[in-house]
Design a protein that fits this description.
Elements: H1 2-37, E1 43-47, H2 51-63, E2 68-71, E3 76-79, H3 84-93, H4 117-137, E4 142-150, E5 165-172, H5 180-193, E6 202-206, E7 211-213, H6 219-250, E8 255-264, E9 268-297, H7 304-307, E10 318-344, E11 348-359, E12 361-364, E13 370-373, H8 377-391, E14 400-406, H9 422-428, H10 432-461, H11 469-480, H12 490-502, H13 504-520
Parallel strand pairs: 5-6, 11-14
Antiparallel strand pairs: 1-3, 2-3, 4-5, 6-7, 8-11, 9-10, 12-13
Helix pairs in contact: 1-10, 4-5, 6-8, 11-12, 12-13
């Protein structure tokens, strides 16, 4: 360390200042190159734009003299952070981004005097398409969408009208496929927005060419697909529940779980009517009474004297009297009645089967080697009880839980997949481009150091030289060839060598001049 300090002191302040200036310049150059070659410092103005919106936005920014940067194949626009708020206010003034379609705003700029029924129908269809596209674009995972709705046209001479139909084209934002829940949401959104449109008349496809929903499917087919999805989700839920519970007790990669669920998706409606004879209630009551009296005379003699005119008739004496009385009563009772309507629309689990495979435990053998041993029956029984509790085991339903202890395959003895080389892993890690920027920046700085700064340092640190290098070299040459008997012949040769070392460029120029003169002579 002391020797280094002494060497630095021997250089003098001029040489030290020159070296410091060169070091500072090289560091500044490397920092500049690293900053310019790194990631963009601009802030994202809008991302996930359509090409039409991106074109309109860049035109507005260029007219306002705001610098911008385009990325993600034209779907992202970035500006400087200091101009981010100004750019957004400017674009809001121009109603940008406007989206891929205008929706019902298409009627804002129409002239009612130049319209027709045909144009009105076309504009109505375009407006419905645009509004649906705006709504679908709000769903997570969708970059953009295209909707085409076919509305039925009423014909005065036709008894039947074609149903409405629609097709949806989706551009997904990521690599993951669209889940079933989002597909059902799109089907119901489109069907609810168009009168007379059924979900079975809607087709959905993505930009990868996958058919997500097929038109023409019956309602039963859609229900079957939904039932299969529900069954799969139920099995996955039970499997995850059992695996997470056992992983906490046994550790990771110690258990394998497979679940099979049988479900009844029948949808039934049942009506039951029950009567309660003990719950009688008088609804109506009617009562009537009838009385009658009958009298018979005792005088029944018939003679001529009784039939003569003016003859007196003896009064008849009653013989007997007959009296009759009758009463009628009618009572109506209301019997208690119960009517029960039951609709079974929720799927019912009819059976659950769970298979659990446990890895054998590893213990030390008599000689110290590791051997595998099946788990004890008590451990398997406890795990079986835990699994039964986790899945809601029902013996009457026929549920089955099978737990076995088996040795898992040893991955060390199996043929391992070829490992990536260090270079391949490095190239796929995403660090290649930043490292290349640093290396290129360092090479440029080194080249600048060798080409520009090194001659400057040599000129600043070189001792005073003769006025003319040609004269010095010529004089030294004459002294060197004066003869071997002369003293001090080695000194001029050493001086020439040192002079050439100190001034390589000037020496090369002089030698080239000599060679050119000899060639012309």
């Amino acid at each position: 360390m002391n020797k280094l300090i002494e060497n630095l002191r021997a250089l003098g302040p001029v040489k030290l200042g020159a070296m410091a200036a060169v070091a500072v310049g090289v560091l500044a150059l490397m920092a500049t190159l690293a900053m310019t070659g790194g990631p963009s410092p601009n802030a994202t103005l809008y991302d996930g734009l359509g090409l039409k919106d991106a074109s309109n936005i860049t035109t507005a920014l260029a007219a306002a003299h705001i610098k911008y940067e385009i990325g993600d194949n034209g779907h992202r626009i970035m500006v400087e952070p200091t101009q981010l708020d100004q750019a957004r206010l400017l674009l809001a003034q121009h109603d940008l981004p406007a989206g891929s379609s205008s929706g019902f705003a298409i009627f804002d700029h129409q002239n009612p005097l130049t319209g027709s029924d045909f144009l009105d129908r076309i504009d109505e269809t375009r407006a419905i398409d645009g509004e649906l596209e705006r709504t679908i674009d709000l769903i997570q995972g969708i970059r953009s969408s295209r909707v085409q709705v076919v509305l039925p046209q009423a014909d005065d001479f036709s008894l039947h009208t074609a149903p409405a139909q629609a097709s949806v084209m989706l551009s997904l934002a990521g690599a993951a496929p669209l889940d079933r829940q989002s597909i059902d949401a799109i089907l119901n959104l489109v069907a609810s927005a168009v009168p007379g449109l059924k979900p079975s008349n809607i087709s959905i496809a993505d930009d990868r060419g996958d058919l997500l929903a097929q038109a023409g499917r019956s309602d039963n087919a859609m229900l079957d697909a939904r039932d299969a999805s529900l069954k799969q989700a139920t099995e996955q839920h039970l499997t995850d529940a059992v695996r997470s519970m056992l992983d906490a007790a046994l550790g990771p990669n110690q258990v394998r779980v497979v679940t099979a669920v049988s479900m009844n998706f029948d949808r039934t409606a049942q009506t039951a009517t029950s009567y309660d004879p003990n719950g009688q209630v008088v609804r109506s009551q009617q009562q009537s009474r009838t009385k009658s009296n009958r009298t018979e005379n005792d005088n029944k003699t018939v003679s001529v004297a009784n039939n003569l005119p003016g003859a007196s008739t003896a009064p008849a004496t009653p013989k007997s009297v007959d009296a009759t009385s009758r009463t009628d009563q009618t009572t109506n009772y209301e019997i208690s009645q119960t009517v029960k309507h039951t609709i079974h629309a929720t799927p019912e689990i009819t059976r659950i089967s769970v298979a659990v495979m446990l890895d054998d435990v590893q213990v030390k053998g008599p000689k110290g080697q590791m051997i595998t041993r099946p788990r004890s029956a008590a451990t398997i029984a406890r795990i079986q009880n835990l699994v039964q509790t986790a899945i809601g085991y029902d013996k009457a339903r026929g549920d089955v839980v099978d737990v076995q202890s088996m040795a898992f395959a040893n991955t060390d003895t199996m043929i391992a997949a070829p490992k990536q080389s260090l270079i391949a892993r490095f190239m796929s890690s995403g660090m290649l481009m930043p490292l290349l920027r640093i290396v290129v920046s360092g090479l440029i700085a080194l080249a600048a150091l060798l080409v520009v700064f090194r001659p400057m340092v040599r000129r600043l640190t070189a001792p005073p030289v003769p006025a003319s290098a040609d004269a010095a070299i010529a004089g030294s040459t004459q002294a060197a060839i004066a003869g071997p008997d002369q003293e001090g012949v080695d000194n001029p040769i050493r001086a020439i060598v040192e002079l050439i070392d100190r001034n390589p460029e000037e020496s090369v120029a002089v030698i080239r001049g000599w060679l050119s003169q000899e060639g012309t002579s």
